[in-house]
Design a protein that fits this description.
alpha+beta
Length: about 150
């Protein structure tokens, strides 16, 4: 393949560049090469409608720079804002520090016990035996069990 063939068929180069930039963008998902993919796609279209290679290159650069600016100033901040997860407590987070009641006696030797906190039943454990009906406070979680103490 010689230079003359490549210059006459620039659309293939632009297509390959578009695909490469799109693959990189898909792999990173960070608006890293999308502007170059758009610029090379526009340059490919210009080649297909008969524009010169110099016009294609200039348009590639201009479109890429414009889309880079648009992405960095407007699109990326919007995406970042939507992707920033606001902390929403889970059920586990909600019960920490809450009061509840023992519904099945807690026995640390047999590792059994159950409490009701915020209307939900949880497996529980403690350092001491706690009889059914006793008011408790949730100290922390260990695995799927609540660690509790008598109030």
């Amino acid at each position: 393949m010689d230079i003359a063939y490549l210059v006459e068929n620039m659309w293939t180069l632009w297509l390959v560049l578009t695909i490469i930039f799109a693959i990189i963008e898909a792999a990173t998902l960070g608006l890293t090469t999308i502007w170059c993919a758009i610029g090379s796609f526009v340059a490919m279209i210009l080649d297909l409608i008969g524009m010169s290679s110099s016009v294609q290159l200039i348009v590639f650069i201009v479109v890429s720079v414009v889309f880079f600016i648009v992405c960095m100033i407007w699109i990326k901040p919007q995406l970042d804002k939507k992707q920033t997860l606001q902390f929403k407590p889970t059920n586990a987070d909600r019960v920490l520090g809450q009061e509840g009641i023992v519904v099945k006696a807690i026995d640390p030797m047999e590792a059994v016990g159950q409490v009701k906190v915020l209307g939900q039943l949880w497996s529980a454990k403690a350092d001491i035996n706690i009889p059914e009906g006793t008011k408790i406070k949730v100290l922390r979680m260990e695995g799927v069990k609540l660690v509790v103490e008598v109030i």
